[in-house]
Structure formats: structure tokens, C-alpha cells
Amino acid sequence: MKITSRSRAAFAIIAATTLAVSLSACSKDSDTPAAPGSNAGGGVGVDLPRADSDFWNAYAKYVPAKAKDLGVTVTSTTNSQNDVQKLLTNVDSLVAQGAKALVMAPQDTGAIASKLDELAGKKIPVVSVDTRPDSGSVYMVVRADNRAYGTKACEFLGEKLGGKGKVIEFQGSLSSINGRDRSEAFKECMTKKFPDIKVFEEPTEWEGAKAQAALETRLTTDPDIKGVYMQAGGVFLDPTLQVLKQRGLLVPPSDPKHIFIISNDGIPQEFDAIRKGEIDATVSQPADTYAGIGLYWAKQALAGVTPKEGPTDHGSIVIKLPNGFEDQLPAPLVTKDNVDDASLWGNAKS
What are the residue boundaries of the Periplasmic binding protein domain, all occurrences included (predicted)? Predict the structure, then answer.
């Protein structure tokens, strides 16, 4: 998806203007009145997926501020700690505490289906942020195009390596649609466009320790690795930099020993690493807008609004899914050329 200056401007003012004005901002049929028996006026329960990721910790900090901007009452917040069983327990707890709509980010997108259908039967709408459940009824999914993440990473590394060499890929959990989308798109692109690049696929379950061990092993067996694709900078950045520093490989791009690195997330720590020349790029997925748009759609659901496909007023596109709708948000590639762009959430002043 092409990111224009107009789209970035829309993101920058979303909390202060478009979202806070009314329920009519995002959907083409947003003047739909509340459905009979809807949960209009109810509260929203929020489950945070984990606390071991800088990206998700940033998202967690945005939730209360965005809720205030939108006039949304958050009944309670839980953290499922990357454990689907805890998520199921947390969901029941949030409902018991009076939540009439839920915002969650299930990390295992295949194991949540029955709970989603159970909630739909109770007329409790669910907004899934960042991840798209494989099945089970959802009111709205709020996420960026994760296949584009993998493709952008492939093209960036392929060009930097001149189409030849070795690359290690830290795959996210393949039980997650995000991990599968990024991995499949990266592989398809490499196979088609850069067949002379050898890719070492390393499953990590989104765990930094597994990525660190994989990198140490690969640098021992294949010391000529010249590229790294980190599918989540929030958990992989620090372990990766530690290994490279220990091996004397944390050097600027001008040094022949430099290993080109592209990440996904867009956290401030990645931006600092880009400025220092430690990594080369990331794809910024908007933690602030994930929080704001996720709560926005929860508010829409409580008002009985039925989403419709098409462009939105915040620079995204809503598409129809077999099990609901998806609001596809843009996610720009960030390099040294645009790392200081004030519209990027990773540059926001706290």
C-alpha cells in the first residue's frame, strides 16, 4: 500500500479529530442507528497479548489515552501473556466484570474460534487488533497488511545483497496469521525475485531467546551470513544486537562486515538503531492507531453500526472477511532516509 503525505497527516490527527467527533467517521454506512437490543453505552474490556514486547508495551500505554479521546469506557484490562488459555480465562473475567464489547489480540489465531463464536452468541462483539483469527466470528479485525511486511523485507534485503548471499529469518509463531503471512510472503518473494539468496528459516514463537540462539548457531555454521529479517523488533532487536556486538559484527553499513537487518514494528528503539547504523530498516506498524482504531470499532459495535467495505477517513481500507471485516491500516517502510519523520508513532514525544 502506498503511503502518501495525506495518509500520514490523517494518522497524525486521528485521535484529536476524526475519531473523537462522532461515530460517523469510518464506515460508509456509519449513520446506521443502534440495532434493537444492542449494547449501546456499554463498556469495553481489553486484553493485552503480552508484556515482553516493546511494541505491545507501547500499545498498552496508548489504550487509556485513546479511550479518553473517544469517550470509551474501558471496564477492565487484562494481559494474557502470550498464552491462549489465559486469554480464554481473561475473556470470561472481562465479561463477568460487565464488558459489552472486547478488544483483544490473540497470538494463537487458530485456537480462539470457539470462544469467538460463544461471544457472538451472547451478542458481545469482538475487535481483534494486529491478528486475524483463522475462524470464529469477529466484528472487526484491525491490522496492517502482514504479507506486505514480508515482501518489503525481502525486496530490501535482496537489493542490499545484490541478489546473492545468505539471510537468516526469525519467523514469528506459525500458529499466528501474522507469522504465517510474513513468512510465506518473504519466502515467495525470495524464491521468485532472488533465487540466489539462501534463506535460513528459524521458527521462534515470537521469543527473543530462541532468535538469539538461532543467530549464534547460524553465525557459527555460516559466518558469511549477510542479512537478517526480524519479524518483530519488539522482541528480537536486543538479542540480535547483543550477538552481533559480541562477535564484533555490530558495525556501520560502510564496513564490509556489516550485516543488513530489516525488522517489523517501528518502535523507538528500532529508530535509534537505524540512526546509529546498527540496523537498516523496519516496517512501522502503528501501535497508536491500533489502539485508537481498535477502540473506535468497539464503540461502533456497541452503537449497532454495521461496517461496510471501502476506504475510510483514516487512510485505510475495510475489506470483508468470511468471519467479519478487516480494517487494513498502512505500514510504511522506515530507513535512514525517513527515520526522523514526525508522523511516525515511534517518534512521538511521550
Answer: 44-304
